[in-house]
Every structure is written in C-alpha cells, then in structure tokens.
Amino acid sequence: MSDPVLHLDRIEKAYNRGLPNEIHVLRGASLTVARGEIVALVAPSGAGKSTLLHIAGLLDTPDAGRVLIGGEDMTGKPDRQRTRLRRDGVGFVYQFHHLLPEFSALENLVLPQLANGAPRTEAEARGQELLDSVGIAKRASHRPAALSGGEQQRVAVCRALANRPRLLLADEPTGNLDPETSDQVFAALTALVRDTGLSAVIATHNLDLAARMDRQLRLDQGVLRAL
Known about the structure:
Elements: E1 6-15, E2 23-33, E3 38-42, H1 49-56, E4 64-69, E5 72-73, H2 79-89, E6 90-93, H3 105-115, H4 120-133, H5 149-161, E7 167-171, H6 179-196, E8 199-204, H7 207-210, E9 215-220, E10 223-226
Parallel strand pairs: 3-8, 3-9, 6-7, 7-8
Antiparallel strand pairs: 1-2, 1-4, 4-5, 9-10
Helix pairs in contact: 3-4, 3-5, 5-6
Family: Belongs to the ABC transporter superfamily. Macrolide exporter (TC 3.A.1.122) family.
Keywords: ATP-binding, Cell inner membrane, Cell membrane, Membrane, Nucleotide-binding, Transport
GO molecular function, one term: ATP binding
C-alpha cells in the first residue's frame, strides 16, 4: 500500500503561548488523506480550520505533532526543504482569488510554472488546457477585473493546479460567491481534482457541498471528528 498523500499526526497549536490569554486552537488533531481522496473540513469561523490547512501546507509549523506529505516527514526540516515541497507538491485555493491584476487569466497560470522552471510554450499549453477544463478558455486573455467572481475563482483553482501538485488545500473556496455560482465553481473544482487524481482537503461551512466529498470531518475543540 502506498503512503498517504497527507498525514497529520496529533497536531498541537496555540497562540500567545505562555501568556494568560493563551489560546489552544488545535489539540491533537490527526488526519490521513489517501491518494485521490477529497476530504471536507467543516468548522465555524474561528475554529482553527485555516490554521490546520496552513500547517498541512507547510505555511505554518505546529507546536507539537508531525506533518508527513507523500510519506516524507517534514517535522523540523529546514525552510529550504519545506519551500521546495510546498512549491512542487501543494496547491492552495483561498476564499479570495488573489490573482495578479495586471496579468491575464492565462498569464496568471503561466507565471507560477515559469518560476518552477517550465518552458513558456509548455506553460502556456498547460494553462490553456486547465482553463478549457473549467469552461473559461475563451476568457484566457482577460484580466481579473474583466472576469466575474466565479470566473476569477475558477482561474484561482487552475493556478493552484498549474504545477501538478499532489495535494490541494482549499480554504472556503466558494465562500465569497452566491449559491448558484458557488455550486458551479465547486463542481468545476471537484471535477478537475478527480480528473487529475490528486488529493484534496476542502474547508467549507456549506454542509451540502461537504456531503458531495468522499469524507466529512468536523474540527471540534481542536480535534478532528467524523461527521
């Protein structure tokens, strides 16, 4: 059996450590995500789901516990190694698209690939393919300001997958959209994840969307529990 794509082992995280107002956000949270699995992470605002995703994506470090990606234990690894694995193996989607406003939709997908060493022609072909897969290939030359909210978020999803990561982490990726657009973007996101065979952890407060994923977990008082 192959190693899981992501394994979080008893993650602990507190803010204001050692102070009277110390806040324990994660209290031994554990999670294993298999290859090709889509996991829903459900929690109210302020419960710690963004912290958990940041730790899973090596953007933050836990106070205790281990983070393994593709079987590689990243605990205590130097920043250079963490940056390399994060760049090559993890894609991020946030509630707000964070696209570069001065570049077109296609250019927003090409730039991260160029930064990762891909030839321009290959990067442009990959970007066009991704935009086509989410139904907005004809909008490739448009800058973000000329795109609708749903289109902007589809570009953000494509950008997260441009470098072919093994793991996608999405933090309320449809939380800023109306219900109809949210459903369309979520369908495009999950279809793209399924087609590429990667694994995903998607944080959402929408129980209907969560029910369409392979497994649903709730972050409850710093611990992950099955819904």
